[in-house]
Amino acid sequence: MNTPGPENECTITAGDVSLSGFLDVPDDAAGIVVFAHGSGSSRFSRRNQAVAAFLREARLGTLLFDLLTSDEERVDVLTREHRFDIPLLSRRLADAVRWVAKQPDVGELPVGLFGSSTGAAAALIVAAELPDLVAAVVSRGGRADLAGEFLGKVQAPTLLIVGGADTEVLRLNRAADGQLVCTSEVAVIAGATHLFEEPGALEQVSQRTRDWFLAHLRRDAGAGRQAGREPGIAV
Length: 235
Description:
This protein is of the alpha/beta class. Helices cover 33% and strands 23% of the residues.
């Protein structure tokens, strides 16, 4: 796997804190994907790094970054108070999207969001709040339901990927999909559990993610992107 090195390290200012990240933009990139990790994870997430490497092979840039500072992470390990603070995670992610959109290597590239676990709720909220910047969203085993009233405001085409054996999260995602008015799909990875650790499961996640972003990260995707809804369950 192509793991980001020191040359890819970056620092993102989010409010009054600085967040560490890895920014990698291939030559002739077709778009860039900002990752919002889930509960107790970070920019070093093995699963997110695997998906990011797969996307870079398809000429998509990636930004993996920590939603929490080192001090906040130490507190969260004990109290779990930050990982479910969706408003905090959403503000941090929104600042990261604004930051990456201003980077010289990014320019006018369309931006996609890839959220896992609670990071998926943050991704959907940011997509609703920044329709001019966010062109597409993918959730991996995410808690899309935690986006609440923002679900009905999302304009960016949204793919919700869930493991078939992750029954409760699948139920919650199907309910959330029913509240989306944008182009959306629930993709079920048969036999997969919440972390997609089964043989071949994460590869399927990566392929579906790549195909979704390549289809929907277009330079003309932006404000006023109110595509007709295309509901469906892909099994």
